[in-house]
Design brief:
Layout lengths: L4 E3 L8 H10 L8 E5 L4 H10 L3 E4 L4 H12 L14 E3 L5
Parallel strand pairs: 1-2, 2-3
Antiparallel strand pairs: 3-4
């Protein structure tokens, strides 16, 4: 099992929204942190991603270091406390676990 999953919202056969919903509905994968990496920035699309179960939303293009910081924070391996992180193009989900 992966420790974290990064998905685009625009995928060929199944959307990232649908993939996230499927992962969240499966007891074996519901605990895995999900990050949406997307070029979408409309609030409706971001809300839909949060509703599908994404823990974080990263707006592309983004700096690789920003994505790494999000992954490290979700995995609990961040070098800097989350409260001190500031990254451009990252939308923190309102969802609580």
């Amino acid at each position: 099992m992966p420790d974290v999953i990064v998905l685009d919202l625009e995928l060929p056969r199944v959307s990232g929204y649908e993939a996230a919903a499927q992962l969240r509905s499966n007891p074996e994968t519901r605990h895995i942190p999900l990050i949406a990496a997307t070029g979408f920035s409309h609030e409706r699309q971001l809300r839909r991603a949060r509703d599908a179960g994404f823990d974080e939303i990263v707006i592309k293009p983004c700096e690789p270091d920003a994505l790494i910081q999000v992954i490290e924070r979700l995995l609990g391996t961040a070098q800097v406390p989350a409260a001190q992180l500031s990254y451009v193009a990252v939308e923190r989900s309102q969802k609580t676990r």
